[in-house]
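Worked Example 4.2. Consider the chain below.
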Amino acid sequence: MTISHHLRVHRSDEHLPREGELAWHLAEVATDEVGVDDDVVDMIVNRVIDNAAVAAASLTRRPVSAARQQALDHPVSISGPGATIFGCALERRTSPEWAAWANGVAVRELDYHDTFLAADYSHPGDNIPPILAVAQHTGRDGAALVRGLATAYEIQIDLVRAISLHTHKIDHVAHLGPAAAAGIGTLLGLDTETIRQAIGQALHTTTATRQSRKGEISTWKAFAPAFAGKLAVEAVDRAMRGETAPAPIYEGEDGVVAWMLDGKEASYDVPLPAAGESKRAILDSYTKEHSAEYQAQAWIDLARRLGTERPDLRDPANIASIVLHTSHHTHYVIGSGANDPQKYDPAASRETLDHSIPYIFAVALQDGAWHHVDSYTPERAGRADTVELWRTVTTAEDAEWTRRYHSEDPNEKAFGGRVVITLADGSTVEDEIAVADAHPLGARPFAREDYVRKFRLLAEPVLLPEEIERFLDLAERLPELTAAEVLQLNIVAKHGVLALAPAPKGLF
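Applying the procedure from the previous section yields the following structure tokens:
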């Protein structure tokens, strides 16, 4: 049974007992010792593999290298063996908050891991780096790690179901900080009050604007969730030492809801599992087959199919216009409704291009495929016929696709739309797609073998074959791992791979 927590703003002269706070209820979810269902365990394993896959593909990219260097410049804290860093030798460790930072950037850099979309956006796989880092440093086993991850996914997804941050231009990592703090609390077996304080501190320190996802998108897009994970680790540390958080953090008259979200008259109903109910929210999330913003996944699949069936659509000389009729979110965030000229700029950053559905649709249409590197190169973005085709693509909000985007019925919830291609001779080609091929309701839903295949594809250029097998063996035995084996749950790059990566110097 799911319970609904009613959240509203309270004046300071109203008495709100701590047991009435959302932060307390989130902490109660974290301290509920209910077991983890087998299908949830299987999906957690899938997402651990998925995170390692996308991290492997990003090891030599500059933001990842910068974050890794920062982590390596900090020693292991004295209270444990430390945590491993993606790409580095297993013996080379750092303090858990810095491992959360470095590994979080590696996971997020290519925009290629899991997603959940509802009232807000989220990449709940961003919880894995901080919780794994703390598990390694504190000597927790695989079963404890699984419980912590189940909590984090549950809480972030439940917050995303109910509370829109983006409407008020607050970045979606404000739901990640509390989720990661709660997940760490479950991992460590902390009490409800300590987790409540950690959640409050994590939320208070992870609210930021969405400018990181607007205009010319910077490398901070990858750093933002890693920063939230790092701050969650630090929030738990302070809470364990008895330090407290602003409260009530959500409901206070000067709190998050009153001043950052819908205001003092606002209210929300946040769905949470009842006591004793399994944490199953991870099963409502979905990963990416393609390295691009999730709302582009279905459009890539439709474009590559259309281009293969109708090669004439690849030639801009044959095209008068391409209109993607889609949801409000897709139109205004990655479509022409964003009014970002950068979304049509061949010199735009990779981060900008993976948030430009006009670019993505044009390239997928022409290439009949999508590649996490080749589809974003300056040469590919600057190709004359692509630029010409790209500039014929616009988006338009369609009320029905917006309704389906927000539907709570998983059988009709959709992230695609309908394309109308007007040819130079005046004829039209129309088609539509509701969900990506890899979605649970798509043409080819991702299963374990797909996650493993994705890992092998992305890891083979940078990991030795025996390292690939070593990691997969550990990941697929996750709930059975000893604490010593959890400490080995990392990917180690081939000799010389990291030496080829940028090595920027900074303050530390």
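DSSP finds 20 helices and eight strands in the chain. The longest strand covers residues 319-326. Compare this with Example 4.1 before moving on.
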